# Entry
Amino acid sequence: MGIIIDGKHVADKITEDLKLKIESMDKKPHLTVIQVGNNPASTIYVGLKKKKSEAIGIKSTVINLPETVSEVDLIDKIEELNIDLDVDAILVQLPLPKHISEENIIKAISPFKDVDGFTVENTGNLLNNIKPNVYPCTPKGVIRLLEEYNIDIAGKHAVIVGRSNIVGRPLAVMLLNRNATVTICHSYTKNLSDITRNADILISAVGKKIIYKDMVKEGAVVVDVGIFKDANGKTTGDVDFENVKGIASYITPVPKGVGPMTIAMLMENTVELAKQ
Ligand code: GUN
# Structure
């Protein structure tokens, strides 16, 4: 039976520390979140971010724009925030409606206010192992969890399932920069289970049930970044947790695993940008 990694506990500790740090700052850090349209998952995430910000002393502004907003108008709004001296951090909640190019929107965000670490300057620095202004929240949260549990990364074979810009790609680089041997799997990968069975650290960031017991090596560390509702409306992750927990050495649950860490890292990034 593996150790269940308590992401909520670690996240609470981080946000408690941040709260004290913020109390000693001259100006409250200010995070502005833009949500376009009413994607139900986005509404939940944006709500959680606002609630946590306010609980620890971060000023939080949520700008709701209609689903029909034009790309130009959204870019104008971002440019306004880029030069607003009161705003430290900007987050545009993804996904965006199909008529808007995410690439163009990310390009519009100042790298100095890019709280997700998604701009070309920040991702480019990350790729070259140069410190970006901030690291992307979810990969940073995964690494922090491994560190908190004293799980070695150097020399380990880390297998990531999923190659998104938000999780898979930046996480691969962050693990590589910590001297892991990294494999990224995706929808074109052949013989997925042959690869995952070789993982010392197996990370899944897909958004559907995909990791079963026969795909996991005995003693592997299993990190589940997926979060979605199953057919019964229950919140679940990519990993068949009940069956995998018996063979993993460490495993993150869903909920209360990586999710709270993402929000804690967003809070930490906001404070870091405010200080910069
Ligand atoms: N949508 C899902 N995850 C994220 C995230 O980390 N940042 C942003 N901006 N949108 C998201």
Summary: The two ends are 44 Å apart (CA to CA). Residues 91-94, 116, 137-138, 166 surround guanine (CB under 6 Å). Residues 27-110 form a domain with the Rossmann fold fold (CATH 3.40.50.10860). Residues 258-275 form the longest helix (18 residues).
